[in-house]
Amino acid sequence: MKTDIPHTQIAIIGAGLAGATFSYFAQQQHIPCLVIEKSRGTGGRAGSKRLEQGSVDLGASIISFGDEELAHLRETLLKANVIERWQSAYVGVPKMSAISRYLLQDTPLLTGNKAHHIERQGKSWLIRDESYQPICYAENVILATPALQSAMLLASIPNSGALLQFANQAGSQTLPQWAMWVTTHATEHAPLVPCQHEVLESIIKDSDKPQRPASTTETWVIQASPQWSKKHLDTPKSEVLAEMIQAFSDVTGVEVLNAGEPHRWLLGRQVMALAPQPFMWDSTLNVGLIGDWLCQGDAEGAMLSAKFAFDAIGPTFDMNNL
Description:
Layout: E1 7-13, H1 17-28, E2 33-36, E3 49-50, E4 55-56, H2 71-79, E5 83-86, E6 89-92, H3 97-104, E7 109-110, E8 115-121, E9 124-129, E10 134-143, H4 147-154, H5 161-171, E11 174-185, E12 192-193, E13 200-205, E14 217-224, H6 226-231, H7 237-252, E15 258-259, E16 263-270, E17 280-282, E18 287-289, H8 299-313
Parallel strand pairs: 1-2, 1-10, 2-7, 10-18
Antiparallel strand pairs: 3-4, 5-6, 8-9, 9-10, 11-14, 11-15, 11-16, 12-13, 13-14, 17-18
Helix pairs in contact: 1-3, 1-8, 4-5
């Protein structure tokens, strides 16, 4: 067996907004942590898709930052030029994934590593990947993943019944969402187009966001309604593309010049979980759950869940137990 396996105080599984925010607060208190992310990049549904010129935000398009619990963090991000005001809310600059990257800062980050199994090794947890190879040892584990993914990980942990049951219940309320980008000639449309259409839920002029590349054309992100997405979960992408483009033209009256392949967020939208609090923590197991599915169901909720969790359990971490 490998002898150079990392050993950390906190293993955070998931580098989306919840995991990145929790790691940020841990850094502020000099608590060792390690973030494990299955994808190549960070941000999760608040990540960005790279294009030939610039990028687009196919998931969370804005963050409200309206809750006073996040006021200090909001001002920190503004001062660091990581976010800017846009349409009565905030966006990451020059793209949404800048937020998670800033929050992670110098925290050790293992991308392209899918945590698959969590087991006891003495008083510590050993996290293994899909090939059952060890990723790291940790005294505490924070699952910052969608409810269904959290449930799958919890299923490998003995005596996690209460957490597992709740994650399973919440996971049954998760809905998919198709999203894609299109380009058009310059229009007079507002950056956020009101949308009451069977196919589409939102239409966002992504190129209008601050610090996006200048262009003679406009780039739009169109997001399908969760109900339509669920109905067309396994529809071929070519058909999804055609229907979403037609819906965009129906709503805006604008011709599409170019379009990207639709992206299916399989766990895209969370119907509110009836959580007793915005995070969950088992002090016997030293395992916790955070995420938007526990708080508000949006990007701000993901960050709030992480902050409330750290405020409550951060002081309990035993720094002498490594």
